[in-house]
Predict the structure.
Amino acid sequence: MSNPRTPSLLWRTFVVVGGGTLAAVAYSDAAWDKWEGVAGDTIPRDKFKALATGAAGLHVTEALGAYFAARRAKLDSPIRWAFASLLWGFPVHRRLSNERRRIQGKGRKNRKNQSA
């Protein structure tokens, strides 16, 4: 089975729904009341807030890294790479790395062709 170039629609759906639910439970009183009615207070709200803040901070850091890596490699639209990384996270960095290698001619396929 080959590795798809982009995350599947199912994975993207889980990311958007999961991140949205996390943010809603962490910062919306109405969502927290519904969550508490279903799950009780097994996980305190401050833990949800810490997780949501940490995830947002991680995605911002990844987006900055993607922007500067794309700019350093002189790829088209570094801001698009940054936005994709902000939204989807780490899978974008693998695609960015592959694109940089492709542009610079340093991919595994290129090495095999050069040695033959």
